[in-house]
Each structure stands twice: as C-alpha cells, then as structure tokens.
DNA sequence: GTAGGGTTAG
C-alpha cells in the first residue's frame, strides 16, 4: 500500500547526518555504506538511474528502502524518487502527489518535475494548481524551467487567460522575457489557443531564433490552415541560416498532403534525402501520409516497403490509402497483416467502411472488435453510430447507446450529435429528443442535428422553434444549421419562414448563403408551386448554379407539370452531370404525367444508348438486431416463400378494400420498373411483408429505403397501416413517413 | 539534474 510507505510530516526521519550515528537493526553492510556515502550518491539512488525501466512495484520497493534509510528527508534524493514515479512510463501521478505532499522540503527542481509530469498528464489543470501553490505556499519562485512546463499545461487546456497571465509575469522579468525556451513555448501556446497572430508576434520578438522557434511557428501556421505562409517561412529560415530538421519536414510534408500537390511532394522527399535530414519514424509516417493524400499509392508503397521500422500509424496510413482508392479488400488484407493493431487501426477501417457506403461491413467489424482485445473509444462509437444511421439499424444503435451508458463513456458533443442523428435517422425521434434534453453541453452540431431530426420527420414548426431556442442559448448557427432549417421549411411547406431566414442569413448571422442554401430555397419555393420565384433565386445566385439547384427546380417542375421549364432545368443539370440518371427519370416522369408518351419513349432510348442504369432500389429492415436487405423482386431471402405468400395475402386484402395499382408512373425516380409485376415487387413492399411476418404488434415496422418512395408504395403502406393495424415508419432518401391508421405524417406532400 | 516543436483515425 502506498500510504504505508509515505512518512507523515511528524514522522519525518532526522536529517541524514543523524542517520550515520544511529545503530539500527539494519545489516552491517548497509550501515557501513551509510557512514561512507553522502545522501547524493547512496547506492539505493543508483537503482533510480534507469527509472524508465522500473515498474510501479519496483518504484514502491525503492520508496520503502529510502524511507527506512531516511533518504526522503534529503531534498536531492527525494527528488530522484519523485522523478521516477512521475516521469517513468508507468508513472502514477496520484502517488507522486502523495509523496510530494509528505516531503519536508521539496526543492524547486522537485516542484518543476511535478508540474512537468502533470502538464502532459491526463489532467493538466493540476499543473496550473501546482504552479499557483508554488507561488503562494513555497519559499521558491518559478525559474526558467518552471515556465515552459506551466505554459505547456495552459496550451494543453487552450487556457488563453491562464497562459496570458503567465506571459504577463514573464514580460516583467528581463531574464525570462528573452529566454528562448520560454518564448518558444509561448509560440506553441498561442497556436493551441488558435491565436495565430499572437504566435507570430512572439516569434517576431525573438532576436535569435533557433530551429525550434521556426518549427513552432511553421507548425502553428500549418495547423491553422495558413499553408502558404508556412511554406514561405520554411524558405526564409534557410536565408537566416537555420537548418531545417526532421521536425520541420514533418510539418512541411503535412502541408503538402493537405494541398494534395504530388509534384511538391516529390520535391520535398528529395530535399530530405539531399540535405541529410535525420530519418525518423514520425517523418517517414508523415511522408507516407503526404503521398497518400496526394493520391500516389505507388510512392507510398515504395517508401513503406523501404522503412526499417514501422508502427501502427504507418500501417494505418497505408490502410487509409487503399480505402480512399476504393480498394477496401486491399485495406482489409493490410489490416489482417498488421503486426499490432491499436484502436486507431480499428477505427480507420470501420470508418472507411462506414464512409464508403458499406455500413454493414462497418458493424461486422465492430463485432469483431469486441471479440478482440481492443476497447472501443469515442471515435469508434461515433463511426458505428453513423453506420447504424445509414442502415436504420435501431436495435444495434440502442445497444450502442446502452454500451455508452454502461461503460460511463463521456457524452461529449461528438457522441451526443451521433446519438441524436442515429435515433432520428432510425425513426425514433422521441429517443433523439430525450438525448437532446438529457445533456447540458450543446454545441452548434448538437443543436443542428436535433433541428435536422425534427425536419426529416416533417415537424417543421418544432424545428424552427428549436432554432429560436438555440439563439436564446447564445449558440451561433453555422452553414449546416441553415441547411437544416431550410430542410424543415421544405418538408413542412413553410415558404414565408424560408424566405425570412434566407434574407437574414448575411445581415443578421454573418453567413453568406452558399450554393446549397440557394438550392434549398429553390426546393422550398418549387415544391410550393412558386416556380417563377424559384427561377429568380437561381438567376440571383452569386456563384454558378450547381447540379443541386437545377435538380431541385426539375423536381418541382415534375410535381407541378411544367414541361418547358423542366426541360430547361434537366438540360442544365445534364450539362453539369451528364451521367445523372435521376435527371432522366424525373424528366420522364414529368412527360408521363403530362401524357407525352413519345417523349417518354425517346428518353428511354437515350438512356439505353448512354447505357445509363438506374440505381437499384433497396430496402432495409432490422429484425432482432440483424439487418435484412431487399432488392426489387428479390428472391434471395431464406424466408422467400413465406414472404411471397404474405404479399399475395396483402394484395387480396387491399383489393377487397378497393385498391387499384397505380401503374401510370412507369418511370418514377424510384427503381427499375422492368416488367408489369415490378410495381408489386418494389423492395419496400417485400420489406413490409417480411416485417409483418417477423415482428408483432404493437412494434412498428421500420424500413429504410435508398431512393424515394413511389406513389404506389406510399398508398400501399397507408392501407396496410390501417388494414393490419400496424404502424409503418419508412425512411426514404429525403425524409420519414409515419404511416398510421391509413394516413401518413407527410400529408402526402413529399 | 529539469525545457520548447512533429505523423494516423473523427
């Protein structure tokens, strides 16, 4: 036990000289040595020389011996022990603090060591507390070593006020205000607080800048996105005869990766080789990352194969490289080959799957992870929640939420946002609202996610109310917030509100409307039938209208049967995206609705000649934690016989209720309507049939579809909800439909 | 006897 080893202040052993005269029970050899040696070179201390190799147990043993020998009363030897227990890889900071608190006379070195350890420990605030204790309750004053450690703590915390106060103390002392170590740490500190101009000001004040000064300021600019200024300084440093080193090149490589400039990448690589820059694993990793980001996996592979030592970052960087090129199999192979996988490697592959449209694989890998000896962290959970959102996998999502609670994972804004997004997109808006109201930290992303959730469920008014509350809470909206607000207006038909918020964006909120925001307005106005005004918004765009603006106009024309304007919009859209099959389909629907069957036929031929295929319609339904996938006319499901029997029964009961299939829309923006029967076999109908078989009332049937739901399926879902007395919650590409008692939450406006 | 700057996943 630690506490037994620690002397209480009253039991502090007598000074070392007294020890020499005692006749204790300890062995003769020990006494003999004690007589001959000073405390500074007592042989016990030699055990602490190599403290980085000592584990916690060994340190406690030494502590015990020193206590018995009375060595802790001597400031120097006590400090040696404190270094070991606060700086060794198996450091135990609470233990170090206890030891420190029992030292009769800690010297300044000891204070510095403890502050140093806490500055890079799990809670850097403790370093600041120690610093103020040093000022108030010790006979010492901070020296040129104390400041860099304390400033580091302030940087870790991005504590601008504390750091500025430290800077103030430093400025008063002629000795400290010109100390290069202190000044360099201030450069880093201001950068950590995102005060780049203050960083630059400190840098410019230094009369004799060394390589660390240059590196600090170049890194600050690189991380703050001011790449060209950083590269300019990199050139200037040579003019000032400061030779760049490996650390400089890490930042330069990182900038080059962000710029994605392969030519520059090769220049940097040969610069390193020609100037004899020291090789290091970190630099090699940075170069790997640079090549991956510049899109040259060949160069990355060459370097990777030539590296003599690799760590999990090297492997993970390569893995991401393969995944970015869409080579997910190669990424997986690399993952399997890795000699050591840390949680970041798992996260990288899970995120790769999740972000490249393979959410199912992401969840499979998450299950593998749980059987391996890695522990999911917040990044993992964010990625897996996003995979659930994509799949509409509510049960898995709930399970992850439970996991978060059970393991006391901190609900930071990232996780909160992901949970709200998951519950919203999996159709359980109440749970999303619960999460939202249960947290007390809400940043702009949390608010925006909740607004988006309400919007996609058609609860536009509530979304706008929440937008008002967000401002009462003094959280500034960003670009995404406005997109979500407009989405709410669009789904609920709130035209006036849309216009109002759009007009306020720049003057009130200081956010210039982006092309996406203009497209939202075109959508809001177009859906409401205000095609002329929608066109005016397009014409007034300060940037060239993108595909989304023309797409929104085209969709509106299809709803309101405006062939002429629809053709124009489609033409513009195809100029920008020649292979956008959706555009052909919507135009064809427009022709069909207006009875222009010749035009429908020629459009079909055009599509065929261009060998454009529609994206296959696909519906997902989660039952007991497993996600089942249905394509149109799918016969691959193990329960296919029962599913098709159920479909027949549905058809009979619907007919009895007077339902007539709506075959007019042969080419909805839905899914390939190859044959007559296809309508009857749309993926969402298969999923509904499966849902009826495999779940029981009152649980709603939850379905996620990749495309928009067609008129016919929408009608069928309404009827099923009343005939079978089952709620259906269907998520399509754009929004949610809650079917209950024969009607839909979208009020047939979608 | 002590110090400052760096790479991956979101």
From TrEMBL:
Task: State the Gene Ontology BP annotations.
Answer: RNA modification
Q: Does the keyword Repeat apply?
A: yes
Gene Ontology MF annotations = RNA binding; zinc ion binding
What is the superkingdom listed in this entry's lineage? Eukaryota
**Which UniProt keywords are listed?**
Repeat
Name the Pfam families on file.
DYW_deaminase, E_motif, PPR, PPR_2
Q: Does the keyword Repeat apply?
A: yes
Per-repeat ranges for PPR: 210-244, 311-341, 342-376, 443-477
Region of interest (Disordered), ranges = 1-25
* Domain DYW stretches: 658-750
NCBIfam families cross-referenced by the UniProt entry? PPR
The family assignment reads:
Belongs to the PPR family. PCMP-H subfamily.
What name does the UniProt record give this protein? Pentatricopeptide repeat-containing protein
């Amino acid at each position: 036990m630690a506490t037994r080893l620690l002397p209480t202040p009253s039991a502090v052993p007598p000074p070392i000289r007294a020890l020499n005269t005692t006749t204790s029970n300890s062995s003769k050899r020990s006494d003999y040595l004690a007589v001959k040696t000073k405390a500074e070179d007592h042989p016990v201390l030699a055990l602490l020389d190599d403290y980085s190799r000592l584990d916690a147990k060994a340190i406690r043993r030494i502590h015990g011996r020193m206590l018995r020998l009375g060595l802790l009363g001597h400031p120097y030897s006590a400090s040696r022990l404190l270094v070991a227990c606060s700086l060794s890889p198996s450091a135990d900071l609470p233990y170090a603090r206890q030891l420190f608190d029992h030292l009769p006379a800690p010297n300044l070195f000891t204070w510095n060591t403890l502050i140093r350890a806490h500055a890079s420990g799990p809670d850097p605030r403790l370093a600041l507390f120690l610093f103020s204790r040093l000022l108030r309750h010790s006979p010492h004053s901070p020296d040129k070593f104390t400041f860099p450690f304390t400033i580091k703590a302030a940087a870790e915390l991005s504590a601008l006020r504390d750091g500025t106060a430290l800077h103030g103390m430093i400025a008063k002392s002629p000795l400290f205000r010109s100390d290069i170590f202190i000044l360099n740490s201030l450069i880093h500190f201001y950068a950590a607080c995102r005060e780049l101009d203050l960083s630059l000001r400190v840098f410019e004040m230094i009369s004799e800048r060394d390589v660390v000064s240059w590196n600090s300021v170049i890194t600050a600019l690189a991380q703050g996105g001011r790449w060209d200024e950083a590269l300019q300084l990199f050139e200037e440093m040579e003019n000032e005869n400061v030779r760049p080193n490996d650390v400089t090149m890490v930042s330069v490589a990182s900038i080059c990766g962000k710029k994605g400039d392969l030519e520059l990448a090769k220049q940097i690589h040969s610069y390193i080789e020609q100037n004899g820059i020291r090789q290091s694993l970190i630099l090699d990793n940075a170069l790997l990352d640079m090549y991956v980001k510049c899109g040259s996996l060949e160069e990355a592979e060459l370097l990777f194969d030539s590296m003599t030592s690799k760590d999990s970052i090297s492997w993970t960087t390569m893995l991401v490289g393969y995944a970015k090129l869409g080579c997910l199999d190669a990424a997986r192979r690399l993952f399997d080959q890795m000699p050591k996988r840390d949680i970041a490697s798992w996260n990288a592959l899970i995120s790769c799957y999740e972000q490249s449209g393979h959410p199912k694989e992401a969840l499979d890998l998450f299950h593998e992870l749980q059987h391996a000896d890695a522990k999911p962290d917040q990044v993992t959970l964010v990625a897996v929640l996003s995979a659930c959102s994509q799949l509409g996998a509510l049960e898995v999502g709930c399970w992850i939420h439970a996991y978060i609670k059970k393991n006391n994972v901190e609900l930071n804004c990232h996780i909160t946002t992901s949970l709200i997004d998951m519950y919203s997109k999996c159709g359980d808006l109440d749970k999303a609202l619960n999460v939202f109201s249960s947290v007390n930290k809400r940043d702009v992303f949390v608010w925006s996610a909740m607004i988006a959730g309400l919007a996609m469920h058609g609860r536009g008014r509530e979304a706008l109310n929440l937008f008002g509350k967000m401002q009462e809470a003094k959280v500034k909206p960003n670009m995404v917030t406005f997109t979500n607000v407009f989405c709410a207006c669009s789904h609920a038909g709130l035209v006036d509100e849309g216009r109002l918020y759009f007009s306020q964006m720049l003057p009130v909120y200081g956010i210039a409307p982006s092309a996406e925001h203009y497209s939202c307005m075109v959508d809001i106005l177009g859906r409401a039938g205000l095609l002329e005004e929608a066109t005016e918004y397009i014409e007034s765009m300060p940037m060239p209208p993108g595909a989304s603006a023309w797409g929104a106009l085209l969709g509106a024309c299809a709803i309101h049967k405006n062939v002429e304007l629809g053709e124009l919009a489609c033409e513009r859209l195809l100029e920008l995206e020649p292979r956008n099959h959706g555009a052909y389909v919507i135009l064809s629907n427009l022709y069909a609705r207006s009875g222009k069957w010749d035009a429908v036929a020629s459009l079909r031929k055009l599509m065929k000649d261009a060998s454009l295929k529609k994206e296959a319609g696909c519906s997902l339904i989660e039952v007991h934690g497993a996600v089942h996938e249905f394509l149109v006319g799918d016969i691959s499901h193990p329960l296919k016989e029962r599913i098709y029997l159920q479909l027949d029964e549905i058809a009979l009961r619907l007919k009895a209720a007077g339902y007539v299939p709506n075959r007019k829309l042969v080419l909805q923006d839905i899914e390939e309507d190859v044959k007559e029967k296809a309508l009857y076999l749309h993926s969402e109908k298969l999923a509904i049939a499966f849902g009826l078989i495999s779940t029981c009332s009152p649980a709603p049937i939850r379905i996620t579809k990749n495309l928009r739901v067609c008129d016919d399926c929408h009608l069928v879902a309404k009827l099923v909800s009343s005939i079978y007395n089952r709620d259906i919650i269907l998520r399509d590409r754009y929004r949610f439909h809650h079917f209950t008692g024969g009607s839909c939450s979208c009020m047939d406006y979608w």
